[in-house]
Amino acid sequence: MTAKPHKLNILEDKRFSCHSCGNCCRHWHVQLLPDEIDRIASLRWPTGDPLGGQTINMVHSGQTFLAHKPNGDCIFLNADNGYCRIHEQFGESAKPVGCQLFPFSMHRTFGNKVSITPRHDCPSVRQNKGDRYKSNQLSKLADIVLEDARPFSEQQRCNLDEDQIQAIVDFLSALLPSLPTVAHKAMFLYGFCDWLGHQEASELDREALGGLYQPLVNHINKWFEETDASKLRKVDRYTLANLLSMYLRRDEDVLDKRVGRIKRAASIVFFGSGKASVNALGSMYPTGSGKSNQLFDKTHDEKLDLSLLDQLIKTRLQTLGFMGAANHHLDLLDGLRSLCLLYPMVIGTARLFTQTDHPMDHAIGAIDHAFGRAHVLRTSAANRLVRQLLDPDVFACLMVSIS
Ligand code: SF4
Question: What is the pTM for the complete model shown?
Answer without folding.
Answer: 0.94
